Amino acid sequence: KTTQQSVSNKSKQIVLPFWCNIVAWFLVLASVLVSGLFLVFYAMDWGRDKSQEWLAAFFLSTFQSVLIIQPLKVLAIGLVISVIMRKDYDAMKMDLVRRSSNTCMNSRKKKRTNELLKKARKTKVDLILSLILLVLLYCICYGNLDPVTYNLHKSIKIHLGVDKLSMVSTFDKYYEYLRTTLITALYSSDLPQLVNNLSQSQESSFISDLAGYRLSRVTVRQLRIRPVDVHRLAPPGGVHFSEEVRDTGCYRPGWRELRVCNYSETQSALELAFVDLPAKLTDSIDYWGRLKSYSGGGFTAVLPNGANRTMELLTELQRFNWLDNYTRLAIVEMDLFYPV
């Protein structure tokens, strides 16, 4: 019977003649050749660049359709068919299904509850450790903070006339600030009878408020750019400071000519002011400005002890144009001690 059924099924099948295969292959090849012919014609009409862009768009759209759009269509159709053609549970099996589903739900809830508890405990521990760290940082930062420090800092800035620097716009005004404000604030000429028993070096180290004590010499340090780079790159004043254009030479007073660098202590303060000194010799550190940082060292004018000699040195520096258009930073450095 099975053989008779298979024979009858085969007899019922419709078989096309052999020449249909030839026609089908001819249609496939013709469609490919015609499409390629039109592509060649369009490429000749569009040009090379436009043809390459069109081919790139064609391949991208093809891969997008094959890899993204068609799989999403299949997935969407499968979901729709599964929702429409789904089969309900049998009434006899509903109780068993409910029990198994409840068991699975309970086990999942327990696992999820345990995971949430672990996460909550970990978060709680992290919060406690963070609070402890904040308390320790607060104790370290503000434990030894003296409330008088702010007022002392403000008083020193007022005494040194730091606010007057905002009105300095020329080199002459800067020298005027050094003479009339800073030097009179740092050097005390008339000491009261309270310090008459001190030695001359100790007396000269007190500043004019008689509360601060200078632990180091007062220095005026400047950083410059090389004149060669200014003439090569831009007019004077137009080149910003950088380590590549920093002037590290040694000159004679007045920036007249280069000479052999000699860091001998026997040189006068005026001659030493025209010599670029490294940061180790000047005990200077980097200075952070508004836009960039400036390294230590540079051309340093070491001010002597005593207001009169300091005034004379500043006069000589101004006469020899120590500050000029090639100066990019001028900073006063000192170490002050205030007993609290």
Automatic annotation (TrEMBL):
Transmembrane parts of this sequence: 18-42, 54-84, 127-145
Keywords linked to the UniProt accession: Membrane, Transmembrane, Transmembrane helix
Membrane topology qualifier: Multi-pass membrane protein
Any GO BP annotation: detection of mechanical stimulus
Pfam families: Polycystin_dom (PF20519)
Molecular function, one GO term: calcium channel activity
InterPro entries referenced in this protein's UniProt entry, alphabetically: Polycystin, Polycystin_dom
Compartments where found: Membrane
GO annotations of cellular component type: membrane
Polycystin domain: residues covered: 165-337
Family under the similarity heading: Belongs to the polycystin family.
Name of protein: PKD_channel domain-containing protein
Organism: Macrostomum lignano
